[in-house]
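Before the break, one more example. Copy the sequence into your notebook; we will annotate it together after we see the structure.
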Amino acid sequence: MALWSVRKGEVADGLGAFGSISLPGAEEKVSNLTMKMTWKLAVLAVLPVAFAVAQPQEIDYSLLPKIYDSPLKDDLAQVTVHRLPNGLTVYLSPNKETPRVTAWIAVRAGGAQDPDDASGMAHYLEHMLFKGSTRLGTTDYKREYLHLEKIAQFYDQLFKTMSPKNRDKIYKDIDWENEQAARYAVANEFDKTYRTLGIDGVNAFTDNEQTVYICDLPANRLRAWAKVESDRFQNPVFRLFQTEIETVFEEKNRWLDNPERILSDAVDKALYGEHPYGRP
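Here is what the structure looks like once it is written out:
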């Protein structure tokens, strides 16, 4: 689900501010793979688990796709499958039509992994991963962090508080801290950075068993793209999350206005019942 196009010698940095950031072992391996190619490529990258790059852990390779260093016989797409040291699976397929890369990063987690009492969390997380990192989306993360931590602490208190009066007080404290944190937030800096690099088609979607992040980039911006993606998966900051939930609600409202989607929800409920696939 991640497609790229790269030609030999076309990989360039293009984003000096992120010079020290990389997926562990990923950047060098991707560079080596692409440099071996004499044509443009299409690439699919699959994360074995959400945030596997952020928290190193033992990887059960038996659960991951098989590696193919050369295409299968009669495979018109000429797909090869590679594995990076951090467990990331990369699919390569020649694409000689354009010197660009359509990149899909697929995480093996989606709506089916939502808690029973909090459906929609995977979709919400998808949105929050566009809010930047400790470097991107902030003017001063150290100061912003103090307020974000306070917000988290107040929510912990809220979950344990039953008194309406005390809950109102906590909500006011949360609102105040949120206003202070927002002073350091740079809205949409992730998207603006990608536009500056000539990257378009930036989007994402959440399904039952996957969350996929999509964009289309110039071939000579592959290294810069990998650094930005590495940063947002390793160092995400869930800033502006209170306002973002309104966006999620609006998407849900549009869904409920679509007759075909209403029918789809009804069919899933009838087929799967209480199984997570049956949740709207």
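The beta strands are 41-47, 80-83, 89-94, 100-107, 200-206, 211-218. The first strand starts at residue 41 and ends at 47. Try to locate both features in your own notes.
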